[in-house]
Write a structure and sequence with these properties.
Helix content: under 10%
Mean pLDDT: 75
Distance between the termini: 95 Å
Shape: elongated
Number of helices: 1
Radius of gyration: 28 Å
Strand content: 35-45%
Structural class: mainly beta
Order of helices and strands: EEEEEEEEEEEHEEEEEEEEE
Largest sheet: 4 strands, antiparallel
Strand order of the largest sheet: 1-2-5-4
Low-confidence stretches: 6-39, 246-285
Length: 285
C-alpha cells in the first residue's frame, strides 16, 4: 500500500513584538523524512525596534536600536534606499544591536535581523521604518559654481555653508576631491563673513592646467548641528584652466573657448573668473 503524500502541518500562531510595525518572525522549518517531521525548532525570537535612548519612535538624529527576546541576534543589517549601511554593533550576549551613526531625516531604513533561539532554531525578522523630514536645513554652495567650467590654476576649491557646521570632522569625512592626475590636498575651515562656515581644499602642489577635477559632498542626511540637517548630495566636475593676469598680453587670455572647432562664447574679466558663467576650457591655439 502506497504511503500518503507528506503534508505540511499547520503551524501555531506566531508571536512577534515590534515597536513600529510587524516583522516576519523566525519561522519553523518542517520536512519529510522516513515518514516523520523534523524536530520542533522552538518559539520564534521576538524582535523590536526603537531609539537607543529608550523611545519607541525613532527620530532623525537618534541612534537606532534593535532588541531581541527569547533568543539572541546574530546579525543585523540596516540600509537606506541608496544601499548605504547604517553602521552598528551587537552588545555582549547578542540581545541588542545599536547603530554607531545617527539616523538621517526623511529616510526609509530597511532592517534585517537574523536570530537564534534557545533551541538553536534560526530565523530572520524584516522591517522598515521612516524618520520624519527635517524641520531646519543647512545648504551650501560649491565654488567653482558652474559644472563643466574651468577654474583658475591658482584658485582653491571652496564650499560655503549657509549656517555654521558644528561637527566639522563628520562633514569633512563626506567631502572628497578626485582628479585625473591623482592630486592630493587638504581642507581648511574658517568662518564665513555672512554668518556661515567656509572650507577650502588646496592642492599639495600647484594645479596643472587641463587637470579634470570632481568635487563631491555626500552630505544627504548628515547632522549639521543646531538642529539643522543636509538633505542633498552635491557634485561638481570642472577643468583647471590657465591663470590669467594683467601682465599676460596673449590674445587668447581672457577669452572663453568651448567646443571643437574652438568657438569664443563669452569674455572674461582679465585676471578674474567670470562668476556669472564660470570660465570655459582654456585653449592656447
Amino acid at each position: 500500500m502506497s504511503q500518503p503524500p507528506c503534508r505540511r502541518r499547520p503551524s501555531g500562531p506566531r508571536r512577534v513584538a515590534l515597536a513600529l510595525a510587524p516583522v516576519i518572525a523566525m519561522g519553523t522549518l518542517t520536512g519529510c523524512g522516513a515518514g516523520r517531521e523534523a524536530a520542533p525548532q522552538g518559539d520564534p525570537v521576538q524582535v523590536a525596534l526603537g531609539a537607543a535612548g529608550g523611545a519607541r519612535t525613532v527620530q532623525a538624529g537618534d541612534r537606532l536600536q534593535v532588541t531581541a527576546q527569547g533568543g539572541v541576534l546574530t546579525e543585523v543589517s540596516v540600509t537606506d534606499p541608496s544601499g548605504r549601511r547604517l553602521p552598528g554593533g551587537l552588545a555582549r550576549g547578542g540581545t541588542s544591536w545599536t547603530s554607531r551613526a545617527k539616523t538621517a531625516p526623511g529616510t526609509k531604513y530597511s532592517v534585517v535581523a537574523r536570530t537564534r533561539n534557545a533551541q538553536g532554531g534560526v530565523g530572520a525578522a524584516k522591517e522598515s521604518l521612516t524618520t520624519a523630514t527635517a524641520a531646519r536645513l543647512n545648504t551650501l554652495m560649491l565654488d567653482p559654481r558652474s559644472p563643466d567650467a574651468a577654474a583658475g590654476a591658482d584658485r582653491p576649491l571652496t564650499i560655503l555653508f549657509n549656517f555654521p557646521v558644528a561637527d566639522r570632522a563628520a562633514v569633512e569625512r563626506r567631502l572628497s576631491v578626485t582628479t585625473d592626475s591623482r592630486m592630493t590636498g587638504s581642507w581648511a575651515w574658517e568662518p564665513d563673513g555672512d554668518g556661515g562656515d567656509r572650507v577650502d581644499w588646496r592642492p599639495a602642489r600647484p594645479w596643472k592646467p587641463g587637470t579634470k577635477v570632481t568635487l563631491r559632498a555626500a552630505l544627504d542626511g548628515v547632522d549639521s548641528g543646531g538642529g539643522r540637517y543636509f538633505v542633498h548630495d552635491y557634485d561638481l566636475k570642472f577643468t583647471i584652466g590657465r591663470s590669467c593676469t594683467d601682465s599676460d598680453m596673449e590674445p587668447v587670455c581672457g577669452k572663453v573657448h568651448r567646443s571643437d572647432p574652438i568657438e569664443v562664447t563669452a569674455p572674461s574679466v582679465r585676471g578674474e573668473d567670470n562668476r556669472a558663467i564660470g570660465i570655459g576650457d582654456w585653449h592656447d591655439g
